[in-house]
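Sequence design from tokenized structure. All designs in this work follow the same two-part layout: the structure record, then the generated sequence. An example of the structure record is given first.
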């Protein structure tokens, strides 16, 4: 939970990196524009609402919290999936974490092997 909380806090401390993915929360015509942009996402929420929700145990990680984790932990995260191209988050970091994205639903720690 500490890693997740640190990542959520990182998002709050560096909103410029993430705020384009959230509604601004102001009650004006911009909210409708924001919601239109996010119509393909499951939730329409502010950055603060997302941060509060994602800190709770049992909440599924999204690409945004994975990116925040990579930055806050100063790690390169490589996400391997059978169904899509490998994704690299925070490519400039030296230390690496490898995750497998299983059935497009669940992340698991993985170890890369060359001799299988």
């Amino acid at each position: 939970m500490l890693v997740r909380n640190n990542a959520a806090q990182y998002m709050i401390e560096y909103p410029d990196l993430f705020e384009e993915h959230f509604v601004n929360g102001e009650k004006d015509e911009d909210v409708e524009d924001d919601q239109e942009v996010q119509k393909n996402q499951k939730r329409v929420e502010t950055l603060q609402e997302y941060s509060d929700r994602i800190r709770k145990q049992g909440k599924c990680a999204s690409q945004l919290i994975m990116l925040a984790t990579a930055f806050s932990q100063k790690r390169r995260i490589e996400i391997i999936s059978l169904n899509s191209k490998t994704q690299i988050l925070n490519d400039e970091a030296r230390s690496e974490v490898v995750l497998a994205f299983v059935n497009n639903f669940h992340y698991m720690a993985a170890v890369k092997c060359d001799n299988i």
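Residues 2-13 form the longest helix (12 residues). We note this feature because it recurs in several other targets discussed in the main text.
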